[in-house]
Amino acid sequence: MAANKGSKKPHIQYHNDGRIWAKGTMMDGVAEGYWEWFRKDGTRMRSGHFKNGKQTGEWITYDRKGKVYKVTDFSQQKRN
Prior knowledge:
The chain is mostly beta strands. It has one domain. Helices cover 0% and strands 56% of the residues. Strands 1, 2, 3, 4, 5, 6 and 7 form a seven-stranded antiparallel β-sheet that branches. Strand 1 and strand 2 form a beta hairpin. The chain is flat.
């Protein structure tokens, strides 16, 4: 791994219509920390954390009404 890491910077991606599709933080061009994805109607679709660009911990998928639909646990994955 690189010894000199940059700082976390906010990152936002947009749907074609200009609404927010995803938002989170990037470090050295890699996803890091908490991220959220949104449907075109603005409802949250998914959320979770990245560490060094890899999904970690619990990731939650939401239904169109905002209720938890599914929880996926990435905490058991081998960490490098």
